[in-house]
Amino acid sequence: MLEFKLLQTDTRSKARAGVIQTDHGTIKTPVFMPVGTRGSVKAVEQRELLEINAQIILGNTYHLFQRPGVEVLQKFGGLHSFMSWPRPILTDSGGFQILSLSELSKLSPDGVEFRSHIDGAYYFFTPEKIVEVERQIGADIIMVLDECAPYPSEKEYIARSIELTRDWAMRCKEVFSASGSLYNYRQYLFAIVQGGVHLDLREKNANDLVAADFDGYAIGGLAVGEPMEEMYHVTNFVTDILPANKPRYLMGIGTPGNLLEAVERGVDMFDCVMPTRNGRNAQAFTIEGTINIKNAVYRFDESPLCKECDCYACKNFSRAYVRHLFNVDEILGLQLVSLHNLRFFINLMEKTRLAIAESRFLEFKSEVLSKMESKKKEEI
User: Fold this and answer.
1) Could you tell me the CA-to-CA distances from 146 to 227, 242, 261, 357, 361 in Å, in that order?
2) At which of 271, 299, 329 does a domain end?
3) Alpha carbon separation from 7 to 11, 93, 354 (Å, rounded)
4) pLDDT, tens digit, for every residue of 172-200?
5) What residues are labeled active site?
6) Whether 73 and 189 share a structural domain
7) In the listed set 207, 239, 271, which residue is the last one of a domain according to the structure?
8) Is 380 a domain residue?
9) Which of 127, 284, 327, 379 could be bridged to 168 by S-S, CB 3.0 to 4.6 A?
10) Same domain, 133 and 259
11) Residue 162: which pLDDT band, with cuts at 50, 70 and 90?
12) Closest-CA residue to 47 (of 361, 373, 339, 375)
């Protein structure tokens, strides 16, 4: 089983700090995980990821299965060796990507048939096949195949969906337990709790999966259009059911405020494409809110993107220079803002861990959120 040590829990909230031990290194939680869908975090080098202290990154099974393909990854001894990344990797099953291409996919109790968005070829992913592919990719943490029901959906549909998600998770666990790693290091399997915004369905799905004793648990199917308060309410409800001695992962979330609210509700792990996606569009996260660096107000601005950031971009370049790079279509601009945004998120979690250790998480959260809201944010 995955070794997860809970170091401290906040006395006035469910915020907690812990350590996950993998064969590729230790992960201190709460943790933000940069997204490297195709074996690369967009516009950011692996060297830079190490410099900003990215403890773990994500890959996506759907995309890696198609390109470069598992034959290539096996030839190189797995994704770690292929992309020269020494630290842990988590792979999403790709189910969300497959099912989001609804016109190209067909769901059944056995699995999901889909047509490649690249070349039109047909594939059929069963839970067993997903585990086989993720084993071949070589991630330290692999996710089960699940169905992420769209929002809104009828409750009857979601009730059927969680049964499918449970059955697929059990099949994943069975084949995972009967197989082994291909690359001489341990791999671990996380289940995904679904159920939409319906607490009774979330409770049923969570209890079924907890009884099966996975290495960790994700909360899926949120941030798909539901009101923010619903997301927080469901998260708080589900973390009360999930075991305290296993990592909890809220998938695909979100803004700095989202992360802090979820930490308060007992979540340990986060991922989101927002830091790099926004960075490529000249949007920088700062302690005073999000700014659009292309705006004319920064033409003569000598200050860094964020005065409290220790990243390479902030230590070496002015807002005026970064604005210039975007305005002349220099790729360095999007690289610098992407790098900064990732460091901003990672540093936020570092400071969060310290605040939990010092029993001042709620004060820290309030201070951060008040700073970010103190000035009127620019129109993006």
Assistant:
1) 22, 18, 25, 35, 33
2) 271
3) 13, 30, 12
4) 999 999 999 999 999 999 999 999 999 99
5) 92, 271
6) yes
7) 271
8) no
9) 127
10) yes
11) very high
12) 339
